[in-house]
Amino acid sequence: MDQKMKRVVTGGEVWTSSDVDYTVKVEATGLRPYTTYYYQFTVCDSKNSSPVGRTKTTPRRRDKVKKDIGLAVFSCSNYPQGFFNAYGNSARKDNVDYVLHLGDYIYEYKEGGYGWGWSMNRIPQPPDRDIKTLLDYRKRYASYRTDADLVYSHQHFPWITVWDDHEVEDNVWKAGSSTMNNTEDSFIKAGGISIDQVKANAVRVHFEWMPIRQVDMDDTLRIWRNFEIGDLFSLIMLDTRVYDRSITDLSWNKHYLDLIRDEQSRSLMGPRQETWFYRQLIESAKRNTKWRIVGQQLLISDIFYGKNEQKLYNADAWDGYRANKNRTLSTILDHKIKNTIFLAGDTHAAYVSDLVYTGHGKYDPKSGSGAIGVELGGTGVTSPGPVGQNGTFDRGAEESQRFVENNTPLQWQDSYYRGYYELSINYDRVHANFFGVPDIRTRNGKEIKLATFEILDGKNKLTRNEKGEPVVGKAVGGALKNGKVYPDAAVLVDTMKGKK
Predict the structure, then answer these.
(1) How far apart are CA 430 and CA 454, in angstroms?
(2) What is the rounded CA–CA span in Å between residue 121 and residue 443?
């Protein structure tokens, strides 16, 4: 229980082999709830030991939680596009209890396929091909684990993860991806490997390398699961990609998707996971658990991407699966479920919205009246956002302003910064602090707190300040609905050195 490993709670021996890429996992038992523990591995019959790691157990279900629980939320970390400074910044501040990763922990592309890493000595392995085989995925995870800040975060925090699409293939769905499908032609073009085998390889290596349990030994594709953090919140982690998703945007089929967008059978999750998800929401509320926090990949709010009067939607997100979306929002509305917060990644930009069931009651974007929850969408750790890899701050501000003007429930958006956000959760409120990382081309500890948002118990919307702005204090990046942003008030902090 101590960092010097003098007071040992439990120990034992474990074997590994090439069958699991020589990774080692131990599930310790008999631990106290909501307690910090330290751990270390030693090679048998030698003096070679690992660095000391730190982890923390969760409160037991229904326990009262006496302190705020902190979560650091990340997504979309592409190795050749920059250093994973966001992981190190959050870890060095040491303000949270657990790390959440909402997917795209790795990317499948060869060097140059989505970012050039040679100039930063960040070339993903293997470099010469998009990964598909078991060995390919193992080499890719190993190369990502050479990033010092990713290693530091894993060493000091327990991680709760789900995958998005790039852990397998771009825009993966149950019978294919943007580059593969279940046809003979696809099998031949991929070099004699099927999409089902690629999925199996990707999922196997994910469970080998990531510090999580395999959820169901009889259902290897399952990663969706629920964590009860005392009686403070239910953390419901979904898979809207790999498990049983209906056909998605494959670039050539947009007109077809428009035609089937409202079909009742279309689902991001498949019927088994959907039924489980709705039951988790309902039962959590019946237990009087204070908050329901849904960790998943995609934006559920109505977001239009077109300019001016264009109404272009993202067919790869919840907007492309409107029946599934409506069933989800109906569950919240019909069962009068309060305090629901959706977390999202995927977009490489920050989106903060009141959660609105369009067409069911009136919604006032100025006051938030009519909202049934909140959505917090995070930017990428390194993956480029709407203004691209080398976009300017001014160009990002223009894009952000366009987004908040064209989307009614969207209260704040940032298109420029990479980064992450942290949640502070207690029985009275949830605070969400969004951080921007200004430089990912070198390893450094610099970051800016861009904005803070609040959700009060029972209000089901973002808190408005005395000026009617949906923000706590000042926002210094992005664009804010019904409010002003103050970029000159930004404070650059170096988590390696202190304030600058």
Answers:
(1) 6
(2) 12
For β-strands 159-161 and 98-101, DSSP reports them as: parallel
d(CA 421, CA 423): 7
Residue pair 381/75 in contact by the 8 Å Cβ criterion: yes
Q: Which fold has domain 64-494?
A: Purple Acid Phosphatase; chain A, domain 2 (3.60.21)
Q: Are 422 and 90 in contact (CB under 8 A)?
A: yes
Per-residue exposure over 242-258, b if at least 16 CB sit within 10 Å of its own CB, e if not: bbbbbbbbbeeeeeebe
Secondary structure of residue 301 in the 3-state scheme: coil
DSSP-assigned letters across all residues of 112-141: TTS---GGGT---SS-SS---SHHHHHHHH
Domain ranges of the chain: 1-57, 64-494
Per-residue pLDDT of the chain (500 residues; tens, 9 = 90+): 678 888 899 999 999 999 999 999 999 999 999 999 999 999 988 989 999 999 999 999 999 999 999 999 999 999 999 999 999 999 999 999 999 999 999 999 999 999 999 999 999 999 999 999 999 999 999 999 999 999 999 999 999 999 999 999 999 999 999 999 988 999 999 999 999 999 999 999 999 999 999 898 889 899 999 999 999 999 999 999 999 999 999 989 999 999 999 999 999 999 999 999 999 999 999 999 999 999 999 999 999 987 655 668 999 999 999 999 999 999 999 999 999 999 999 999 999 999 999 989 899 999 999 999 999 999 999 999 999 999 999 999 999 999 999 999 999 999 999 999 999 999 999 999 999 999 999 999 999 999 999 999 999 999 999 888 999 999 999 999 999 999 999 999 999 995 44
Q: Are 102 and 295 in contact (CB under 8 A)?
A: yes
Q: Which residues contact 495 (CB under 8 A, 6 or more apart)?
A: 88, 89, 92, 93, 445, 446, 447
